[in-house]
From TrEMBL, chain A:
Annotated EC: 1.2.7.4
EC category: oxidoreductase
Record field: compositional bias (Basic and acidic residues): 23-38
Entry GO MF terms: anaerobic carbon-monoxide dehydrogenase activity
Species for this entry: Nonomuraea africana
Protein name: Carbon-monoxide dehydrogenase large subunit
Disordered, as annotated region: 1-38
Residue ranges of coiled coil: none
From TrEMBL, chain B:
Signal peptide per UniProt: none
Record's keyword annotation contains Iron-sulfur: yes
Every 2Fe-2S ferredoxin-type domain range: 2-78
One example GO MF annotation: anaerobic carbon-monoxide dehydrogenase activity
EC number: 1.2.7.4
Protein's name according to its UniProt entry: Carbon-monoxide dehydrogenase small subunit
SUPFAM superfamilies reported in the protein's UniProt record: 2Fe-2S ferredoxin-like (SSF54292), CO dehydrogenase ISP C-domain like (SSF47741)
Keywords, comma-separated and alphabetical: 2Fe-2S, Iron, Iron-sulfur, Metal-binding, Oxidoreductase
């Protein structure tokens, strides 16, 4: 039997298996459906970009700067050109006129400086790992060999590593214009009055360490041309945005460029980018007329996948003696790295609207300075701006509680927006449409066994045990569904935030759904099928979801910022409504009644009060045959829709973490983690839970494990998975997760989005727990990641 | 160039290989066994785990020449007789994969784990999977899947 047949059998077996028990009931939305995506992923029938083999395929490798900052005095590629298997070698200088500049789509302020960003450095390198030359060879090993034969003459320049120093007059400059990328500020209410004679003042500085997103699939690009048109496969989250941007930057006309995001092995924002390698692969295939492929090594990836976070946050909070907040001041330094990439400057701005969290206050001010350093640029990483903001406010709320000797839950209760106050316009100007913070918190407290753990904590304290117990809380909200186009416009973003969906009934009654979102693990094929099954009354298995290829899915804004379901799912639903309307006209025509006399029940139009009916499948066939269509109705049952949200959606929840901290060794071990999230209506609880789990792992990892570390010369020390500590199964606990369900009122599905919630909420919960364990030792803060050494030093 | 003979998923191949060629690249680039992905270059992630003569190995840390005369099973061969392996099925049932990139390696590592301990505790599973990193799932469902896989495989654990 051939392998092809086997794979088919396996897939069929999953679908038909009696062992895979699917939940009861007709409605698909809300069911814990096992995923359609799984069979091919489980049996290895995937199309990762690196799997793509084309006849005559050449392999690309990049010579990268070993220094953070240097002038390039010369690049000698001649020896490399003579190496076996080498087809071509180019330095940055060789392609200087052709390679363009990598785009930044978010010029946030009038004073912003967007430096020219050549995909390969021409005269100066500004971060470690920046490409200076590339080799194209017949084999990936030979391409790598030839890199050694390239001779680059670097004249070292001083690195710029510390944001505060970078802003001083004396600092060496990353760019001639200086190290200030932009300033952006925003204030609401009378902030001076709020702080004047405030009974309680809390003033803190928090550091968001630099993180490396580390999707498991390294980035890969394959490009080919037939001389006129170009096809680019990329492990990207944003095939549609990428196509527009590549057309604008490479000069390849948009209608001659097809971008395909095949199976993509995780993103977390790191594949929300227009990369040097994508631009260069297009350029190389154009120059050589042959298909080319580049697949990064992990160490190359750690250097050059955009990094995340990296902020210094000064946060000051003024409150009444009873703990009620008067006002909040935030001053932020945000490390841009050496260049502004696709949305680099926008990331701290997304946080600007979230520093106030779920709390009521009269005044708020936010000042942000974007700073250039000689490091890899930062950009969106899971949560993008919201984890940073939530960390600061949730840490400071605990400091407020400590100052007033109140329970951290009580301080939050005194300040949060009450259920009956929604919709509520916050001091940052957002209107939270719905929420119920009390309900989520109550549920979390009871699942956690809060009182019992508090009792154990004080017991351990009284007995002076070496292993202390800490309890951390985080009551968060975030904004999903990025974003209403008009809001993006008001924030100077280069595009809108709508999404597209297309629903086609096929002649045989099956359904093809095309979505503009581009999933990489989120299970859109399953969730979108559930939505369509309910809307059209067709079986779940009769629906196929297509995505990630601009030749097929021609419109879209792609997947990031927990926008897919909230915006993309809605577009699909709207397309279903249009299909149904068309079907209704056709049914009325065929059944010789008025469209108003028809009721639509589980995929069948029935003439009320009679027995006559037409199924949607019959109508699809009739619309295909087109023998007798009513006036103005075109053949085929299909429709397109775009959805532009009127508001963001605001998931929220309460996370509680109990952590055991060994005061003698500094070891911290999570004992219990409870997450109660409110993501509105749930389409697939299995997928929601999975997303929460994964998010928790990433947020906890920021608190305990992960950090991009540079040495004094600016070299990245954490280039491998041995140095950059990702948590393994042995490092994480079993999570207790549950939900409350307060539907979003800003979209008809009532959904809020879930992809980033776990990450946003968990980092402060864990650090609050550690600090809580150590407060009797006079500890008020520990810099992340809270390694045993840092904890141990903090106690001493 | 040394000539090696290796059986992969039941098919015997004879190949001339450079001494430095990694097994994973032989599988992926030469034999088209792209079900086994590469996640790192330091043998830390486990994405490339396959069975070599019945034991799990990270195929990025084995030279193709070392596999001469061996029997290799990749994730594509696990279901070679048309039956999904109980461990693959368990991963599906427990939603133990999201992007799926770590999944082939996870499934292999999980099967090998049960070879040594057919009824592992949660802690043993977590320890046993330490060499396989997943960035999407937070591991909870993977642990559950391995337990379920262990149950359905019963005591008579046979590696493929
Ligand atoms: S690719 Fe083999 S362990 Fe990472
Ligand atoms: S499922 Fe994505 S890395 Fe494990």
């Amino acid at each position: 039997m051939t392998e092809e047949l086997d794979a088919g059998l396996v897939a069929q077996q999953i679908a038909e298996s009696g062992q895979v028990s699917e939940p009861e009931g007709k409605r698909e939305v809300g069911k814990a459906r096992r995923r359609k995506e799984d069979s091919r992923l489980l049996t290895g029938r995937t199309t990762w970009t690196d799997n793509i083999q084309l006849p005559g395929l050449l392999h690309v490798a990049f010579k990268r700067s070993p220094m953070a900052h240097a002038r390039i005095a010369g690049v000698d590629v001649s020896a490399a050109r003579d190496m076996p298997g080498v087809v071509a070698v180019f330095s940055g200088q060789d392609v200087a006129d052709e390679q363009g500049s990598l785009p930044c789509a978010w010029p946030v302020s009038d004073d912003i400086v967007i430096p020219d960003h050549p995909p390969m450095a021409v005269s100066e390198v500004r971060y470690p790992g920046e490409a200076v030359a590339c080799v194209v060879a017949t084999d990936r090993y030979l391409a790598a060999d030839a890199l050694d034969a390239i001779d680059v003459d670097y004249e070292p320049l001083p690195p710029v590593l510390d944001m505060t120093e970078a802003l001083t007059e004396a600092s060496p400059k990353v760019h001639e214009s200086g190290n200030r990328a932009f300033t952006w500020n925003f204030a609401q209410g009378d902030i001076e009055a709020a702080f004047r004679d405030a009974p309680v003042l809390i003033d803190r500085t928090y550091v968001q360490q630099r993180l490396i997103p580390t999707a498991m699939e390294p980035r890969a690009v394959t490009a080919t041309t037939d001389g006129e048109s170009f096809t680019l496969w990329s492990s990207t989250q944003i095939p549609h945005v990428l196509r527009v941007m590549l057309a604008l930057t490479t000069g390849i006309p948009e209608h001659r460029l097809r971008v395909i995001a095949p199976d993509v092995g995780g993103g977390f924002g790191s594949k929300l980018q227009v990369t040097a390698e994508e631009v260069l692969c297009l350029l190389l295939t154009r120059r050589l007329g042959k298909p080319v492929k580049w697949t990064e090594s992990r160490s190359e990836g750690n250097l050059t996948v955009h990094h995340g976070r990296d902020q210094i946050q000064h946060i000051a909070l003024a409150a009444e003696a009873d703990g009620r907040i008067r006002g909040l001041k935030v001053e932020l330094l945000a490390d841009m790295g050496a260049y502004l990439m696709l949305v680099t400057p926008g990331v701290p701005l997304l946080g600007a609207f979230m520093f106030n969290g779920i709390y009521k206050m009269d005044a708020y001010s936010f000042d942000c300075t974007g700073v250039f350093t000689t490091k890899m640029p930062t950009d969106a990483y899971r949560g993008a701006g919201r984890p940073e903001a939530t960390y600061a406010i949730e840490r400071v709320m605990d400091e407020l509680a400590a100052e007033l000797n109140l329970d951290p839950i009580e301080v939050r209760r005194r300040n949060w927006i009450r259920h009956e106050e929604f919709p509520y316009t916050t001091v940052a100007g957002l209107t939270y449409d719905s929420g119920n913070y009390e309900a989520a918190t109550e549920k979390a407290l009871s699942l956690f066994g809060y009182d019992k753990l508090r009792a154990e904590q004080s017991d351990r304290r009284d007995r002076g045990e070496p292993v202390q117990l800490g309890i951390g809380v985080s009551t968060y909200t975030e904004m999903c569904g990025l974003a209403p186009s008009r809001v993006l416009g008001s924030l100077s973003y280069g595009a809108g935030g709508w999404e597209h969906g297309s629903v086609r009934m096929l002649p045989t009654g099956k359904v093809e759904v095309v979505t503009g979102t581009s999933p990489h693990g989120q299970g859109h094929e399953t969730a979108w099928s559930q939505i369509v099954a309910d809307a059209l009354g067709v079986p779940f298995d009769d629906i196929a979801v297509v995505h990630g290829d601009t030749a097929i899915s021609h419109k879209g804004m792609d997947t990031y910022g927990s926008r897919s379901l909230v915006v993309g799912g809605m577009a699909v639903l709207q397309a279903c409504e249009k299909v149904k309307e068309k079907a209704r006209k056709l049914a009325a025509h065929m059944l010789e009644c008025s469209p108003d006399d028809l009721e639509f029940v589980e995929g069948t139009f029935r003439v009320k009060g009679t027995g006559s009916s037409k199924t949607i499948q019959e109508l699809a066939l009739a619309a295909f045959a087109a023998h007798d269509l009513p006036e103005g109705v075109e053949p085929r049952l299909d429709a397109d829709a775009t959805f532009d949200p009127e508001n963001f959606s605001f998931p929220h929840g309460t996370h509680l973490c109990a952590i055991e901290v060994d005061t003698e060794t500094g070891m911290a071990r999570i004992r219990k983690y409870v997450a109660v999230d409110d993501v509105g209506h749930v389409v697939n609880p299995l997928i929601v839970e999975g997303q929460v789990h994964g998010g928790l792992a990433q947020g906890i990892a920021q608190a305990l494990y992960e950090e991009a570390v540079h040495d004094a010369e600016g070299n990245l020390l954490t280039t491998t998975m041995a140095d950059y500590l990702l948590p393994s199964a042995a490092d994480l606990p079993d999570f207790v997760t549950d939900r409350t369900e307060t539907p979003a009122t800003s979209n008809p599905l009532g959904v809020k989005g879930v992809g980033e919630a776990g990450t946003i909420a968990s980092t402060p919960a864990v650090v609050n727990a550690i600090v809580d364990a150590l407060r009797p030792h006079g500890v008020h803060d520990i810099q992340m990641p809270c390694t045993p050494e840092r904890i141990w030093r903090a106690i001493r | 160039m040394p000539r090696i003979a290796v059986t992969v998923d039941g098919i015997r191949y004879e190949e001339d290989v450079e001494p430095r060629l990694l097994l994973v690249h032989l599988l992926r680039d030469r034999l088209g066994k792209t079900g086994t992905p590469v996640g790192c270059d330091t043998s830390n992630c486990g994405a490339c785990t396959v069975m070599l003569d019945g034991k799990s190995v990270k195929s990025c840390s084995v030279l193709a020449v070392q596999a001469d005369g061996s029997d290799v099973v990749t994730v594509e061969g696990l279901s070679a007789n048309g039956d999904m392996h109980p461990m693959q099925r368990a991963f599906h049932e427990e939603h133990a994969l999201q992007c799926g990139y770590c999944t082939p390696g996870m499934v292999m590592a999980a099967i090998d784990l049960l070879r040594e301990d057919p009824d592992p505790s949660e802690e043993a599973i977590r320890k046993g999977l330490e060499g396989n990193l997943c960035r999407c799932t937070g591991y909870c469902n993977i642990v559950r899947a391995v337990r379920r896989g262990a149950q359905s495989m019963g005591q008579a654990v046979t590696t493929p």
